[in-house]
Amino acid sequence: MDSCEAGRLKWDITSGTGEPIRLKWDITSGTGEPIQPYYRLPDTGKTIPVHHFPDTTKMVPQTKMQLWVNTKVFNFKGYQVNNLKLAAWSGVAFAGLLDGVLEGNRFDGNRNFERKYNVSKISYFGSESWKLAYKNEDPGQGKKNILAKVYGAQDFYHHADDFRKLGYISGGITLGISGTQTNSKVWHYAADFIIGFAISGISKAAGMQWIRN
Fold this sequence. Notes:
Blueprint: E1 22-26, E2 36-40, E3 47-49, E4 72-76, E5 79-82, H1 83-107, H2 112-117, H3 146-151, H4 156-182, H5 186-212
Antiparallel strand pairs: 1-2, 2-3, 4-5
């Protein structure tokens, strides 16, 4: 039984007579057997026991499991946005914001955190943060400390650079996946790209504006 039929059965099977199947009752008085309903095919006289058919009163239409990511939150002329698509745009926005901060900081010699928050040059956010990878802050010794050996770079720039790449890549992949679930026309995919590009661009501009001012 297809669930989209909502458990409906039509007892209109005919075999050339145009007459629907009639429900008959097999009354067996005195035998002690329960009354057994059956369906009779009027053209042949054959009967079909009722237990061959599903009990529609006990049938529950099956629905597709609804996940949070697939929940629709917006619909504009057939263009649908679900939570997965919002998550993708959020990832792109996060990546764009980091991108703007990093590039804006580079424009000013990586000294904006020192100017804005008075951090040390050789701190995590400082312009010479690469020195953190060396013992006693002396690159001439050539001896990296244990954190540098395990984690590599230890400064804001390189960590944020990894996260912006992750945000752009994962956001793009997630946006593509969400499109396969909601998009039905070519312009839907174009809208996904344009909106994602606009979000990343605005976020990048905001990040750059914040770090340089």
